[in-house]
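The aim of this short unit is practical: by the end, you should be able to scan a pair of folded records and say something sensible about each. We start with the first protein, listed as its amino acid sequence and then its structure tokens.
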Amino acid sequence: MTTRAGFIALIGEPNAGKSTLTNRMVGAKVSIVTHKVQTTRARIRGVAMEGDSQLVFVDTPGLFKPKRRLDRAMVAAAWGGAADADVIVLLVEAHRGITEGVERILEGLSELPQGRKIALAINKIDRVDVPVLLTLTKDLNDRFPFVKTFMISAEKGKGVDDLRHWLAGEMPESPWLYPEDQIADLPLRMIAAEMTREKLTLRLHQELPYQLTVETETWEERKDGSARIDQMIYVARDGHKGIILGKKGETIKAVSKAAREELSEFLGRKVHLFLQVKVRENWLEEAERYSEMGLDFRDGNA
């Protein structure tokens, strides 16, 4: 049997649907999905099997104009993921078309070494009429020589099987890179932290989610098969701590319950989750916090 394996970088603007597509391809939730932009920080890899091919998805942070150190590190991680991949897939939202951000990404793609396999996936196709879709497809292909174009709805699964099948055929001949039943190469501690951060992001409706991070501090396997997980939520300001705790601790209780339930389902066993909140005014400038997120602190230098 000839096996194939390779890396696929999904790139695009924040909220283009990269995380949703990763999770749809893999068939499990490995990447944080929220209505907020810029929520994927680390290069989360999801692993999918298609026939004799193993597809390793590098779900990069959304590409946007960076302002802070964390932003710059995220953008560097996204382009780093693209440069290392066997195939790059650019996701563009059908209803938003060619935005200033898409223009910037197209410029970045044109600066990559020649010979890269770069495909286009127009996502959220159910939001526009066919003529709009066809015009957008032509405009994008006029601007960049994509090897293939797909029209998909990552959320509803339309066109995703065709994309997965094509990607499988484009992977280089190689032994599989991961065990067949492994769906992500992130340590479970980081996946657990991401799940809690997602619940916080969904719950908090202001700028705050970008001023916090979650770290799994301890993970204890218990004799009864359950796991005790202690996590620390770092915030930049004292006022943020009160927002996360909520009135009489209601907010953090709700977040803890939602994260615990999802973690239990993900791990297939009982989880005891304990959350604490700590103020660290300069966490955005601490190298250790970046390595916990799978980012390079040095990439954040202006």
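Turning to the second protein, read its sequence before its tokens, just as you did above.
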Amino acid sequence: MAALVDSHAHVQMRQFNADRDQVIAAAFADGVARMVAPGTDVPTSRLAIELAERYPGRVFAAVGTHPHDATTLTDAALAEQRELARSPHVVAIGEIGLDYYRNLSPRETQREALTRQFALARELDLPVILHNRESHADMIALLRSEGQGLRGVFHCFIGDQAMARDALDLGFYLSFAGPVTFPKNAELAAVAAWAPLDRVLVETDCPYLTPAPFRGRRNEPRYVALTARHIAEVRGLPFDQFAEATAQNAATLFRLPSLPENL
């Protein structure tokens, strides 16, 4: 069985409070070897680290303030985020970015929070996990002006080939989630088929964006296999080959340790 990596799973969130350990165990049983749990603010980042401490080498944490919560990134919060990010279980700064669809924080505040977290990622030599929704032009401009030398991933990539090329040209990875499996998103599937194999990740973004055929249910890390299988099919690759490639990409980006030999 291929050892998948769910590169973006919010398993520390309240939606899993009733059955978190069972959900994680089910994912491991179904071939998900490892997962990355990104924070969206200081409290959820702390919870991600606590979860990673319970599953060392299998669950990893990312520390970040989401654009929806950009107004919470005070000087004190950023200082706490810096200390949290020094944990050996933290592999990235994220989830950070811009969201001009919901605009739950003012756009200028989002840009300022993102720039400050770019600086934190550079200081700690960590990759960034980017949220980019209807904000592509500003995201690329900020990466070029404030994010030089950073590495990272455009999480839950939803865009056309030109947008994908912008990200790839900056050295970033593209991570595909459940929406790539939706029948209406044939263009997105074509991007997933076109993107260089060594720059592709897969994720669930659980508990959100459940892939077909389970759309409408709570998403779980084990469903990352559905997304991976769909992309493998459109690429014309054996599932195990695609799963292995994306797992290796995640290990490279996040500098994950080698898997234990008994897995």
